[in-house]
Amino acid sequence: PTMVKGPMTITGFIAYTQGWGGLYIRANKLAYDMYGQHPGLAIKNRFGVPDCPERVHWDEDLALKVGAPGAYDYGPERCSWMSQLITNWIGDDGMLHKLKSEVRRHNPEGDTVFLNGEVVRKYEENNKKYVEFSIVATNQDDELSARGYGIAELPGKS
What's the whole-model pTM score? Predict the structure, then answer.
């Protein structure tokens, strides 16, 4: 079945970052120390204060300035959606064996993403059963957002 994510919101982008941790998101002394060690990392905000480059995910003006269509999602989140799509299908006793994903475009605020998987091969190897999947994620305008490929090990009979 189709898995739907969205509509995308700034709050959703920030919530993902809170769970993941972000690469460069620091506050106060931690930010000051990081920018001191890596002076080219910070991008000045509208007040002229060095700030985090990840702001493109919640700062519309910065996102537009760097050529994005607006504040947008984090690419790794789409990889996790693909993982969820497969693990929802194989259940708690299956095992995701391999996942490859390609992020193809931004998902700006307001977009909705539809993920679909298709079994492309079933096989047995070393007495284990595997299923290969192709995964496609498109937005509400049917534009390709991401695509992927996965292999899952199916549970054996008890």
Answer: 0.90
